[in-house]
Amino acid sequence: MSLKPASVIGVVNRWVLYVLTFLVPLLFFVGASDAFELPKQTVLIVGAVILATLWLVRMVVDQQFTWKPIRGWAWIVAFVVVMGLSTVFSQHPFTSVLGDYGQQWGSFATFFSAFVIALVASQELNERQWLSVIFSL
Question: What is the pLDDT of residues 91-104, one digit of tens each?
Answer without folding.
Answer: 877 777 776 655 55
